[in-house]
Amino acid sequence: MPDVTRKILWSVLATGTALASLSATPARADDPAVAAPPAASAAPAAPAAESTTPPPADLLARGEYIATAGDCVACHTAPGGKPFAGGLRITTPMGDVVSTNITPDPDHGIGKYTEEDFEKAVRHGIRRDGSRLYPAMPYVSYSGMTDDDVKAMYAWFMHGVKPVAVTPPVTELNFPANLRITMAVWNMVAGSVEPETGDSATYDKMRRGRYLANALAHCGTCHTPRNMMLSEKEDSYLAGAPLLGWYAPNITSSKTSGIGNWSEDDLVTYLRTGHVAGLSQAAGPMGEAVEHSTSRLTDDDLHALAAYILQVPAKEDEAEHAPRERFGQAIDTPDIRSGELTRIDKLDEMTGPHIYDANCAACHGDNGAGTSDHYAPSLFHNSVVGSAHPDDLIMTVLNGVDRTAGGLHAFMPGFDHGSDVQRLSNTEIAALVNYVTATFGSGDHGVTADQVEKMRKQLPKTP
User: Fold this and answer.
1) How large is the average pLDDT for residues 329-339?
2) DSSP notation for 119-183
C-alpha cells in the first residue's frame, strides 16, 4: 500500500474513532445508546413490534435476567431518572454523549423496533434507521450473545419494561466524530465475535463463565487496554485500562499486578456485595455494575464468572511491584490537633495530614484501620490505595461511594464542587491523595492539582 494511501486510511480510522473513552461500561460507556428514534419525517415505514401478545412468563424472566447481566440500566438511566429512559450525559473530548431512551415507547424509545431491528442494534451496532452506533455501546461484546438470549431480551424490553415518553437530548459530537458512517470503518478494524450457539443456560461452568465475561458482562470493554485505533488489545485481555477518569484495574491471574491472590469465593463476594475486607471495594462504574448487575446474578453464575476470570492468563504491569492489596499497616501517630481554634473564614489550604484529620479520620480512623464492622474500609491492605494507579482513589474522593448490593448500602460523601459536606480544592485533593497513598499504600505518587482538575471534568453530568 502506498505510504500516502496508508496515511489517509489511518487518518480516517483515527478521526472516526477518536471518542477518547471507548472503555464504556455499562459500563460503563461513552455512547450507550442502543437506538435513537429517527425523526418522523426521515423514518422508514416501520413495522410495529411484531406481536402484542405477551410472551410466556419464563421467556420474560430470562430476558430480564439477560438484560441485568448485560447491565443495560447503568448507561440508559440518568441519575434520578426513570429506568431505561436515557439521559445519562458523559463527557468526552469530542463532546458530550447522551444515552437514549430504550423503553418500548413507540415515539420516544424503541417501541417500533422489530426483533430483527433489535438484533442489529445489539449485536452489530446498527440502528433502525440504518445509521451506526458509537462503539461505546458494547455491541462488539454483545455480538457473542446467543440467538435465544437476544430473543428473550427483546421480549422483555417490549413487554416487561414500562414505556417512558421522554426524549433525551440528542448526542452532538464535534467533527469528525459526528459522522456515524466512520464507525463502519472502525468496525472493520475492531471486528466482532461469532454468536455463541445452543442454550446458554446449559453451558458447563467454564463455558458459562466465558460467555458471561466476554458477551453479557463485557468485562473486557473496561478492563482491557486499547490500541491506537481504540479497539481492544487481544493480547492484553483484562490487563487494566483508564475509564472516564477511573482506572479499571488488571484482573488477570497475575499475583503481583492482578487478582491472582484472590480465591473464587473472594471474587464472588466482591461481585455480590462490592466489598471484601482486606482486599477491595467497588466504587464508580464498578460500583454501579455490582449494584445493578452482578449482585443480582445467581450463585452459580457468579462462581462461573469468577472461575473463568481467575484463570485468565497473567499479564504484568511494570508499575506494580507488589500485590496492591498487601500494602500498608495501621499507624500510631500523635494527635496533630494543637488545640488552637481555626477561623471558619481562614482560606489557607491545609496540608495532607490536616485534610485527612478533618475529613477522613472520623470514619477511617486516625490510624487508617476503618470501622470494626468494615463499613468504612481500612485504608491499608486495600487494593485501591495500594494501586500504582491513583486514579480510582482520586475519583472516589471526588465522587464518593453510593452502592447498594447484597442487602447492604455503602455510602461515602464526595468532596467535589457539589459536595454537601466539604468542598475540597484540586490542590487539597492532590495533597490528601498523596498523603493517603504515602501513609497507607504504595507511596506518594505526586498527584498534582492539574491532574485532579482533569479527572474532575470526567464526573458524569445530567442534561
Assistant:
1) 70
2) HHHHHH-B-TTSPBPPTTS-HHHHTTS-HHHHHHHHHHHHHTS------PPPP-PPTTTT-TTHH
Which neighbouring-strand residues pair with 248? Answer: 241
Report the residue count for the chain. Answer: 463
pTM for this one? 0.82
**Tens-place pLDDT, residues 126-178:** 889 888 887 778 888 999 999 999 999 999 999 999 999 999 988 887 776 66
List the Cα angle 301/306/309 in 5-degree steps: 125
Q: Measuring CA to CA, how many Å separate 426 from each of 137, 284, 315, 416, 429?
A: 32, 19, 33, 9, 5
Contact call for residues 391 and 246 (beta carbons, < 8 A) = yes
- Collapsing DSSP states into helix, strand and coil, what is residue 366? coil
Do residues 66 and 298 touch, judged by C-beta distance below 8 A? no
Asked whether the beta carbons of 220 and 144 are under 8 A apart, the reply is no
| Rounded Cα–Cα distance for residues 327 and 332 (Å) | 16
Q: Do residues 77 and 83 lie in contact, with contact meaning Cβ atoms separated by under 8 Å?
A: yes
DSSP result, 37-55:
PPPTTT---PPPPS--SPP
Of the CA atoms within 13 Å of residue 365, those in its CB half-sphere come to 21
The answer for residues whose C-beta is within 8 angstroms of residue 84's C-beta and 6 or more apart is: 72, 73, 76, 77, 101, 102, 103, 109, 157, 161, 164
Grid look-up 457473542 returns 144
- Answer yes or no: are the C-beta atoms of 307 and 206 closer than 8 Å: yes
Beta bridge partners of 404: 409
- pLDDT at residue 352, as a whole number: 92
Cell numbers that stand for 367 in this block? 490510624
Closest CA to 242 of 129, 41, 77, 392: 392
Asked if 66 and 170 count as a contact pair (C-beta separation under 8 A), the reply is no
> 113: closest CA among 45, 52, 46?
46
Type of residue numbered 441: G
* pLDDT, tens digit, 9 for 90 and up, residues 233-284: 889 999 999 988 899 999 999 999 999 999 999 999 999 999 999 999 999 9
Q: What is the pLDDT of residues 79-104, one digit of tens each?
A: 889 999 999 887 666 777 788 899 99
Half-sphere exposure of residue 428, counting CA atoms within 13 Å on the CB side?
A: 20
